Amino acid sequence: MTLRIARRAAIFVVSVAVASVAVFLFMAVLPGDPAQVALGVNATPDLVAKTRHDFGIDRPLVTQYFSWIGNVFTGDFGRSYVTRDLIGPQLVDRLGVTLWLVGAGTVVAVLIAVPLGTFAAARHRKASGAVVSGLSQLGVAVPAFLAGILLVQIFAVQLRWLPSGGWTPPNQDFGEFVRGLVLPALSLGLVQGAVLTRYVRSAVLDTLREDYLRTARAKGLLPWQALMRHGLRNAAVPVVTVLGLQLTTLLIGAVVVERVFVLPGLGSMLLDSVASRDLLTVQGIVLVLVVAALLVNFVVDVLYTAIDPRLRRSR
């Protein structure tokens, strides 16, 4: 098990290195001059050249990359080309908002998917199981931003139970923080919960057909007792893998949901930076999102090894 985790950690480190190169090169080949964008169309060539030198973008690409990635490892993401503010502190603040949103959305998705998926599998030959499967299929087709708009219309505009947007830090007013997080988390979690329900149903259904569950029932256990004691852990192995992919999807979906609910997260920061062509800020945000996705996959691999005893015993 230790050797397997060490291998996955090495793959993670290599993946981060390759991803950093890919992100840097992608931003480098984009058309447009950051110095020209920062100064405007009326800037003189001499001033543009001086600004390019100040930004450090007149150096060879290899030099620029190692200078940038070396500073990133120390927490220095540079200064914005447009506002000249430090990017690192902004990333930390915005990342906290996004993590709260993604974490809450994940909790909602799991709380929906595990009981409903298990119920749909256990009742797959009954009308109730078919109804749950149909509703989950319908939920898969609903985009997160549309779910957010519908939730705002119902719970914020008509019922006036929850705010339609905005952000209150948890250390200022925890009650308002929770109220403001409910609708964004639901808009993310409901859609992803519908997707995850399908996988939970499939995994539990496959587990119910295994011989060891038949043996457990033959020994006197009720079907739900056999499933709870012996089946759910085995069914969790493929579900954990899918959940890791869902977390990555939640990170991407948060970009749009943050805009719908006016949340100051990484998604809003990314869209604003793209609109102003602040390429260095975009570069830092994309790198953070890519590393977060790779980290999620690494954690899923570790959990996969911890859950499945066959992997712990394998050489």
TrEMBL record:
The chain crosses the membrane at residues 9-30, 99-122, 134-157, 177-200, 235-262, 282-307. Gene3D superfamilies: MetI-like. The keyword ATP-binding does not apply. Residues 95-300 form the ABC transmembrane type-1 domain. It is found in: Cell membrane. InterPro entries: BPD_transp_1_N, MetI-like, MetI-like_sf. It comes from the Bacteria. GO terms for molecular function: dipeptide transmembrane transporter activity. Keywords: Cell membrane, Membrane, Transmembrane, Transmembrane helix, Transport. One of its GO terms (cellular component) is plasma membrane. It is a multi-pass membrane protein. Its main location: membrane. The keyword Membrane applies. Belongs to the binding-protein-dependent transport system permease family. PANTHER family: DIPEPTIDE TRANSPORT SYSTEM PERMEASE PROTEIN DPPB-RELATED. This is Peptide/nickel transport system permease protein. It comes from Actinocrispum wychmicini.
